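Entry 14. Two folds queued back to back today. First construct below, sequence then structure tokens.
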Amino acid sequence: MALNRLWLHSVRTRFWRWLADRIVDAPLEPILHPSQGRLGWLAAFTFLGHLIFGGIWLFWLPQPFDSVWIRVSLSLLALAYILPAVTRDLSSPKSNWVFGIATWIQLPLFFSWMFWMNDANAAWLASLSAAILVYYHMTDWRIAAGGTLLGLAVGAGVASLTYPGELHYALPMEQYVVISFSYLMGLMLGFSSANLRRARLINMLSTMGVMAHELRTPLATVNLMGDVLAGLATSDLPENKRKRLDELGQRLQNLVRGMNRLIDTQISNAQLMRLPRESSLIDAKALVSEVVSQYPYKTSRERECVAVTIQENFAFSGSRPLFAQVLTNLVKNALHSLAATSKVIEPGDLRVDVGLHHGKGRIAISDEGMGIPHDRQQRIFEPFFSTQSGAGSGLGLTFCRNVVEAARGHISVHSEPNLGAVFIIDLPVRHPTE
């Protein structure tokens, strides 16, 4: 009996862990495969689709209650996909909400409403079933699952208010079976696709993590060379040679420290989809001060260009080592952007600000560097996409986004080419009493 209880407890624990990992805590993807090109195609397909099918149902195979103004309105609603406010930052809450509402209105709500208004005929039964499957193709399967049920309920309610006669919901059982089948197939395909994308990403990152780990052996040799040079700098040599040897030793050791930080990032990326969701309390001021002071700057001028401003301190929940790596990545990127400019960096060219904004804690890292082109800003958080041609792995900002989102926060970028960039991290504020 005790063995059975332990087995049941183990199964129950694994199930709840799987449920939390794959469904509850997995990041939402309100816009599947976000890119300007994909949204452009979706806007064109939706815009033309409503006009074409409106013409079919209005003039060729007339369907009751379909109208020109409804089709034109839905076609114009499709243009929301290509609004600059949406495409500028596809990871922002505003873009996700606009996309989600526009898609929900055009698919489950509209097709459900017309299904009931046209007495649930065969044409609208097929259209509603297709709309459900298309909805799963456009957004996260969890959003599609809830949005479809909500659209069916709201569509039926709107139909009961707008139908000129008495609306009968007692349909043949075959129609309910067809709709349920479409819903379940969409749910299954959406869940399978999400798992496939997740497995591919984990496999690629695991391979990179192993490769990064193997680099530690040659780096240990380089570090020993730095120690040897530092030892020679203390021997009986002319002053200029001792100074040169000491400088070379320090540069080698800084290089090793920087490479080890990069390796730590890649190994963490190997667990990208399984980041620890710790509940330890982190002091933002202390974290920023520690990262800025311990960063392996190449020169004293780099160190002097960093300015830290604490407008108002706050605390938040998360993994301190991972957040330290996030800030290190952002500082590194900012310094690289400054180095790419032709001007000499000055104090204050890289700023780290800590404060509160609309009830949330905010850490902002801004620089006066090269900036990021507008057409790349919505892609910089994608895995393996890098603005540093041949120099970046394309995983640093993906790592940053996942760490921040694991702490229920949000990271965004605002930039103008040749005028610098600012990365903003907004986090829920926590208090020691919580």
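Second construct, same run, same settings:
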Amino acid sequence: MKSGASEDAGNVDRHWSAMMAAAQTGDRAVYEALLRDCVPHVKRVVRRSGVRPDNVEDVVQEVLLTIHRARQTFDPSRSFTAWLSAIAQRRAIDSLRHQGRKDRRETSDPLFYEAYPDQDTTPEGAWEEERRNQELKEAVADLSPVQREAVESLAIRQLSLGEASVVTGRSKGALKVNLHRALKALRARFDEEG
């Protein structure tokens, strides 16, 4: 029985190799059929590599893209299944590495959002935001007239440098300098208070 299974695998491999050779010469229909036919094999390789079930489809897509990009490198005299399996294993390893890095950086707590309300929706959060806005208005009002003009034009009204230059009658360079100095003064003021 085992010898029959290996014969079948050998026949499939030879068939896929022939299909890939045809695809390399530009036979689009054969190429599409080959990609459809090899998806179950790719899924098996990816699952055996330890990829999470919810990531298997993404890795399969990456494998198919890699096959497409590297299709001209396949040697039709060699085993297509071995070539395909190597690509699938490499993409699975890439996925596992990416997932490992992501797991180290991120934590998930499904109850977090239920247990901790958005601070801006609470009365205290709204009051705090109003207080910060008032402090910012006072700090901007204390700037020199040219600095205040630059902040109001560029940061608050969000005009472009060209538009602000026309509105204020100042050069773009002067507006940049005044905005820079204003931001520096605001930072210094809030650093002192904080």
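Quick look at the second one. The chain has a mean pLDDT of 87. DSSP finds nine helices and no strands in the chain.
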